Amino acid sequence: MGIGSRPTSRWRTFAPGQRVVVRRRRDDTPGPGEPPLTDVVGEVVEVTDEGLRVAARHGETWVPAADVVAAKQVPPAPQRGPAST
């Protein structure tokens, strides 16, 4: 789906606790050669008409509805085992 394409509204059906990936337009200005989109992976915290909040590994991220390009539910994160030494 291209940047100018109409975004999917599937994200509006997400429920808190579901693990998702959301492809979104970046909220900064990408430098030369940097992609205009980024992905947020984590658990849904909140869904409203204005957007959705996702708890990612490095904190919560608010994704405005206008910035959602694509979104889907994904399987649970793999369990990390003990670090080998």
Task: Give an overview of the whole structure.
The protein has 85 residues and is mostly beta strands. It has strands at residues 19-25, 37-48, 51-56, 59-64, 68-73. The radius of gyration is 14 Å and the shape is globular. The protein starts with 18 loop residues before the first strand and ends in a 12-residue tail after the last strand.
Could you outline the blueprint of secondary structure elements for this entry?
Layout: E1 19-25, E2 37-48, E3 51-56, E4 59-64, E5 68-73
Antiparallel strand pairs: 1-2, 1-5, 2-3, 3-4
Strand tally: 5
Helix percentage range: under 10%
For the biggest sheet, the summary is: 5 strands, antiparallel
- Which outline best applies? globular
Distinctive features:
single chain, mainly beta, five-stranded antiparallel beta sheet, 44% strand
Short description:
The chain is 0% helix and 44% strand. The chain has 85 residues and is mainly β.
